[in-house]
Amino acid sequence: MQRDKQASLKGIFNITVTPFATDGSIDYVALAKSIERVVGLGFDGLLIGGTYGEFPTMSPQERAELFRRSIDCAAGKVAVMLCTAASDPRIALELTQLASALGGYAMVTAPYVSEVQEHHILEYFRLIAPAARNGLIIYNAPGIGITLSASLIEQLSAIDNIVGLKQGELDPTATDRLANRLGGKHKLFCASDLAFLGPIMAGFDGLSSTNSCAFPELILATYRAARSGDASSAIHLHRSWFTFRELARRYGQPQTVKAAMAHRGWGNGLVRSPLLPLTPAQRNEVAEATDAILGRATLSRAV
């Protein structure tokens, strides 16, 4: 039964940024276009409402509606991870139950509260996991201020209904340990397209990518080259967008990705407070980098 739950958890998943309208509401027309774009290109799945989807700025009701609309857009064509993380376990439980009812894979981080300890995290996952009928994915997200150790992840993986891990901590030692201790039993996803070649070569099952919202053809081509064993092409393609990775590290991932999307005619670049959109000068930097990357990348041989 566990393996049946894991069957579609593999390949490249687009971490779909949440588009906002000028009045601050979620722009569901833009969301549908973004999902249709990556599904049409051949991505294996979607990750909706993650940390780079700005879920902490949304109400539970907004997140629930985002889940419903995204599942409708996916139309059963690809697997969908739905981030149900919340420090309040009541919210996490409700969203996890909804995610399961919609046919998605629920995914949760550790509860991001002051002085949380490992035994608190274990009990939190034990509480949430039974609600995930399709299986629960551990999201190790250092960006929330808590990094799960490899030993804690192994303990969490022993909980019934845990089927996978989205690993944001890319320390080589942890990557090697998890790939060899959990590989084949749980589905392992590299959470970052900034440095994913190592985890994929170590035996991870897939990649989740935010930058694929801005460069879907390029990230897909890089992933496929790596998977096919064409290391030369994978390295060439990955290096081709290093300038953008530098900008994303400098200005923030959602803002930079949305600015590049807007430059390509895909959205307006808006984020929600406390994040701020890029300044005109920063947007110009992103636009120049985007044009240079798209001009130099050789995509036809890999897509």
Give a nutshell description of this structure.
With 303 residues, this protein is α/β, with parallel strands linked by helices. 47% of the residues lie in helices and 13% in strands. The longest helix has 17 residues, at 280-296.
Helix content: 40-55%
Helical element count? 13
Q: Note poorly predicted spans.
A: none
Strand fraction equals: 5-15%
* CATH fold field value of the largest domain: TIM Barrel
Look at the helices and sheets and give the structural class.
Answer: alpha/beta
Describe the structure.
With 303 residues, the protein is of the alpha/beta class. The protein has 2 domains: 2-209, Alpha-Beta Barrel (TIM Barrel), CATH 3.20.20; 230-303, no CATH class. The protein is built from 13 helices and 8 strands. It has helices spanning 2-6, 28-41, 60-74, 89-101, 118-128, 150-157, 172-182, 197-202, 216-228, 231-239, 242-251, 253-263, 280-296, and strands spanning 11-16, 45-48, 79-83, 105-108, 136-140, 162-167, 187-190, 206-209. Helix 2 (28-41) links the parallel strand 1 and strand 2. The longest helix is centred in the last third of the chain and has 17 residues, at 280-296.
